[in-house]
């Protein structure tokens, strides 16, 4: 949905069978930034979550939706002009019919988002 339009995967690794690390580029020219916000673009939180969901789905090979968010912290805003590239690290534990996941979006020492939740 957002892959290839709102963001592009620069590199991706699976350090083990239960994690994926990706470096992505935000598309600062995407029309969403015209409304969020003109002259001061910020990556919307819902788009950060969708990015995590798409990367997780691709890694596990299943279509998943967020079922429950246990903890989500937006620690810093992402201006795609100032921080065009971020690293996303996702780890998961398979459960009966779902995946318990943690994720972090960061650039160097700056953390933008921390997430813990369940996808089904």
From TrEMBL:
Coiled coil: none annotated. Pfam families: ApeI-like. It comes from the Bacteria. Residues 13-95 form the ApeI dehydratase-like domain. InterPro entries: ApeI-like, HotDog_dom_sf. This is ApeI dehydratase-like domain-containing protein. It comes from Chitinophaga chungangae.
